[in-house]
Amino acid sequence: MADKKKTAKVVGSLVALSFSGLVFFAMFGPEGCGPTEEEKQILFTLNNHQEVVDKGGHVEKFTVQEDDDGDEEGVYRFDAEILNSDGVAIGRIRSLRVEGFGTMKPRVMWYKTPGVSEEWPQRGDRGRRGEGRRGDRDRGRGDRPPQ
Question: What is the mean pLDDT of the chain?
Fold first, then answer.
């Protein structure tokens, strides 16, 4: 009779321990598996971008670009290759997402030759906004006389 009580206590302890382990796994375990909600939202936005849909492309994965400053918490800058139905890269797409808010309109670059990866062109020094346009010298701002 004493052996049956000991066996019942051990079995009960094992069942309770297994149950508590299962509860902890359900609470904390699955969070590290699979894409986050932000990653799912980014992929959804990229794959539903009208220009990508029109060309018959899709995005399978993207890379998050690290900030130099690290000041902007919750801001994701990302870059991805656009693939056709055969899995051949036909372009690149780049954008920025603010966590919990939204995604900036993506910038798209189509490759001249499908399958031949290209890098983003370097932006030239374009100066401040509005400089160099004809007629800017004669434009006034508010109450100030034109210069």
Answer: 77
